[in-house]
Amino acid sequence: MSPRLDDEDPDRLYTVTGGRSRVDAGAVDLVTLIVSESEPSTGMQSEHVRILTLCRRPTAVVEISADLGMPVSVVKILLCDLLDTGAVTARHPSVTRVSSSPGVHPSLPDPELLKQVLVGLQNL
């Protein structure tokens, strides 16, 4: 059984993120797909290694968070580190701009893309 997020040691999370608590709001969101662009290197932070290994296939940020057993906010900080070095790339979902369609909000991701993400997660 994996540890509960409530049980996570705040000091450990502080250490993992180097004391940072915020990232660029537009860098990644919950459904952004992350893909490894390189192999882990010697001396790399263990959480970065785990992310690079996990993201050999496109993996949603929310899924990375669940697999690492860490809060999404912490995972986003780690991902921004990897994005800055080019170790991973982010594939942002396209946003539907059509506001005349009934039931479609203009700021929500494309429903078809969300279906594909859900199918991918179910196939794991």
Give structural notes.
With 124 residues, the protein is mainly α. The protein has one domain (5-92). The protein has five helices and three strands. It has helices spanning 10-16, 46-54, 61-68, 72-85, 111-122, and strands at residues 33-36, 59-60, 88-91. Helix 3 packs across helix 4 (72-85). The chain is globular, with a radius of gyration of 16 Å. Mean pLDDT is 79; it is low at 1-6.
Helix-strand blueprint:
Layout lengths: L9 H7 L16 E4 L9 H9 L4 E2 H8 L3 H14 L2 E4 L19 H12 L2
Antiparallel strand pairs: 1-2, 1-3
Helix pairs in contact: 3-4
The secondary-structure element order is: HEHEHHEH
Structural class: mainly alpha
Radius of gyration: 16 Å
- The average pLDDT score comes to 79
Tell me, briefly, the overall form. Answer: globular
Give the biggest sheet: 3 strands, antiparallel
How many domains? The number is 1
Q: Strands across the major sheet, in which order?
A: 2-1-3
Number of strands: 3
Distance between the termini: 18 Å
What's the helical proportion of residues? 40-55%
* Quaternary organization: single chain
**Tally of contiguous helical segments:** 5
- Low-pLDDT residue spans: 1-6
**Strand-residue fraction?**
5-15%
